[in-house]
Amino acid sequence: MSANHDDHHDAPDGHGRALRLGIGGPVGSGKTALTAALCRSLGPSLRLGVVTNDIYTTEDADFLRRAGVIDPDRIMAVQTGCCPHTAIRDDIAANVDAVETLEERFGPLDLVIVESGGDNLTATFSRGLADRQIFVLDVSGGDKVPRKGGPGVTSADLLVVNKTDLAPMVGADLTVMSRDAAAVRDGKPVLFTSIREDRGAHSVAEWVAGVVDSWRHQHSHSHLS
Amino acid sequence: MTKALVRARAILRTGLDDRGLTRIETIRSDPPLTLRQTAPGEVHLVSTGAGPLGGDHLRLDVEVAEGTSLTVRSIASTLVLPGAGRSLMEIHVYVASGATLVFAPEPTVLAAGCDHRMTTAVTLAADASLFWREEIVFGRHGERPGRCHSRFDATAGGRPLLRQEFVVGDPEADGSPAVFGTARCVGSTLITTETPAEGPKSEPREAEVAEGVAVLPLAGPGTLVSALAADAVELRKRLSWGESRVSVQAGSPARATVGLRPPASRFP
Amino acid sequence: MDGPATGAPAVNGATLGLPPTQTAASGMPLTHGLAGLLLLADSRLPAGGHAHSGGAEEACRTGAISGPEDLARFLRGRLATAGRVAAALAWSACEAAQAFSRPDKESREPGSPASSGQARVADPETAWRLLDAEADARIASPAQRLAGRTQGRLLIRTARRIWPSTALETLARAVPDGAHHPIALGVAAQAAGCTPDQAAMAAAYTSVTGAATAAVRLLGLDPVTVHRLLAELPYDSVIAEQHDWSALPAHAAPALDLLAEQHLRTEVRLFVS
Ligand SMILES: Nc1nc2c(ncn2[C@@H]2O[C@H](COP(=O)(O)OP(=O)(O)O)[C@@H](O)[C@H]2O)c(=O)[nH]1
Ligand SMILES: [Mg+2]
């Protein structure tokens, strides 16, 4: 089915559209910082859009706009009515609408990042919204968090453990975190970052670029379809 | 209930004189609905006798001819009183192309025990201008109002512009923070914004909101000022503020600002 | 697995070869349309409704709603005004969608509801734009129009995947930015097999449930108390057969307009509307 550009109710099936990347994780772990870092590193080579799910205000969207890492119009904020989990998992309609609005306005895009409003460890993105997802933890929650698991930690396509610069201060043992995460994640990748020190989160950006690349190959738009 | 009889019917029509100025062509009225011309292109509703009373059926027809302008005001507020059955006030208006109507009577006050129905149908040609103010006061001082159901329908260029009903004295809606809140009066002013026959669409207009009043650009070519207040004086103040915001936004010093401001009443 | 394709042992009349025991006067089973109604009215329907408070968030913020008594008055007023208008629009939309989907126009009885609406005189897309303009004329507040269209667009997107139908497609084409929510609901209801009355019931019900839930979340009210308020509301009183689109109910709620506009200008907010 070809997209009808006069009809803003489309539900594209993945062909010829951007990869949708969910970034989830507890409040304060560095999701917005990571989003900004990815825009910084990938902005020059990929066409980007960002959807934020702020809990209260448009703070995350405003932060990203001020950070100047992406054209402010390419950031859309979604309100979640007290339920950030609902908006990324059970009722994704508003987020899908935001993503499709961005694609329609600025498309074609390569990557749309959807930052969740901040979750507990059980929250994951619906496959109807995110094609791939990153779960962001930080070391200050303690080094036991990966062991506790939860769908976010175990099933995300990439687990990011952020704020490694704080590890000595909070007494978190990164080798323990690394070993526990590997044990519950069945071989899926884990990356340690300090976005404070590496403002482009280069290891994560590299992973994302790889994912976008293979998405493009799998879903390249056939102009005959 | 017996069928209401038309007790009074008033008709008002404008036309152009030889010099191209508005003149009142027809002015016919029946007590208690009495019309008086007070200036060129201006007519006042003068109530002779109390009312409407329950059972009264009043009808006013207004036709503003092409290129003319008419202002309709009233000397005093209309006090709706109980009587034998329901009272009805029916207004039918046609504003032709290039014509302007300012309709700004004093408020309708709903006395205790009244049972009133108001219907207004305004048909606007595509480039007609309208300033229409309606104020309803829920009872005289300290009085619980009777019932009132009003319906206002305006179409512009054949398309629906504004349709709104108010029900006062309905236990479901009275005192509801969703409907009138703690207000004792409700009012609105519909101001149509002239749409040029051709050329680009006008700038998107911004809504504005202040204590008890909102300036609401409609989907069609018009703006509604909508207000709630504790008393009639406050209500008028709020509506006037909103009306002035519409003129400011309209920007053009032409009819939108000058012609559509209701002139100050000649009556103290 | 053995047995019939339906899996579990069937005990309904159809499978046992019995005629349906209960039928309404129309010849339809009495449960006709109910499954669609339940799905559409369920707050778990993934169509974005959970993020709208229908003015309740702003009313809570300003203190206009502070407890169950205020909330009850808020809900009653909302139902009697916005709910009544929504119900009428949904009724009309569902009825028009039914009329469009009826292959043989002659089969409509003269004077029956199906032959009444403007649907008959226009092609579907023109008719949808007309009904949508009637909705616009009843919603003075731009903030409320925006919220209504957003919810309508989200519902159409969701509904056309659940209950694909020609009427949903033509509605999506006719109003690309999203038809007003009650119209989307009425057309979705027809696609889901509901009657116009059921569509109107879904509209009346969803006109108050979002506000009620929002108040529970924002004020920490006892959810059972609030559900009792919902149970006591006179939904039936706002549902009626409709014939003339220009004459549909147009009950205004100036306080809701003020709340909607203030809400849009409030910095800290959890809900879209
Ligand atoms: N020390 C340190 N602080 C960080 C790092 N990444 C983010 N932060 C800070 O952590 C706080 C929360 O980050 P934010 O991205 O808003 O978290 P979110 O709620 O997950 O979006 C902010 O004050 C960031 O500056 C990091 O690598 N190290
Ligand atoms: Mg954030």
TrEMBL record, chain A:
Supply the CDD domains for this chain: UreG
Q: What UniProt keywords apply to this chain's record, in alphabetical order? A: Chaperone, Cytoplasm, GTP-binding, Nickel insertion, Nucleotide-binding
Q: What is its main location?
A: cytoplasm
Key word Lyase present in the record?
Answer: no
Q: Where in the cell is it found?
A: Cytoplasm
Record carries keyword Ligase: no
Q: Where is the composition biased (Basic and acidic residues)?
A: 1-16
The record, for Gene3D superfamilies, names: P-loop containing nucleotide triphosphate hydrolases (3.40.50.300)
Give the Gene Ontology MF terms in alphabetical order: GTP binding; GTPase activity; nickel cation binding
Any one GO cellular component localisation term in the record: cytoplasm
Per UniProt, GTP binds at G25, P26, V27, G28, S29, G30, K31, T32
Domain (CobW/HypB/UreG nucleotide-binding) spans: 21-191
User: Which segments does the entry list as coiled coil?
Assistant: none
What are the start and end residues of every segment in region (Disordered)?
1-22
Q: Which GO terms describe its biological process?
A: urea catabolic process
- Function in brief: Facilitates the functional incorporation of the urease nickel metallocenter. This process requires GTP hydrolysis, probably effectuated by UreG.
User: Sorted alphabetically, which NCBIfam families does this protein's record hold?
Assistant: ureG
Entries under PANTHER family matching the protein: UREASE ACCESSORY PROTEIN G
Family under the similarity heading = Belongs to the SIMIBI class G3E GTPase family. UreG subfamily.
Assembly: Homodimer. UreD, UreF and UreG form a complex that acts as a GTP-hydrolysis-dependent molecular chaperone, activating the urease apoprotein by helping to assemble the nickel containing metallocenter of UreC. The UreE protein probably delivers the nickel.
Protein name as annotated: Urease accessory protein UreG
Recorded source organism is: Herbidospora solisilvae
TrEMBL record, chain B:
Q: Where, subcellularly, is it found?
A: Cytoplasm
Q: Which InterPro entries match?
A: UreD (IPR002669)
Pfam entry (one): UreD
Q: Which residues form the signal peptide?
A: none
Listed GO cellular component terms?
Answer: cytoplasm
What GO molecular function terms would the record report?
nickel cation binding
| Entry keyword set | Chaperone, Cytoplasm, Nickel insertion
- Chief localization class? cytoplasm
| Disordered: annotated span | 246-268
> In UniProt terms, what function does this protein have?
Required for maturation of urease via the functional incorporation of the urease nickel metallocenter.
Q: How does it assemble?
A: UreD, UreF and UreG form a complex that acts as a GTP-hydrolysis-dependent molecular chaperone, activating the urease apoprotein by helping to assemble the nickel containing metallocenter of UreC. The UreE protein probably delivers the nickel.
Q: Which HAMAP family does the record match to this protein? A: UreD
Q: Which family does it belong to?
A: Belongs to the UreD family.
Q: What protein name is recorded for this chain?
A: Urease accessory protein UreD
Gene (UniProt): ureD
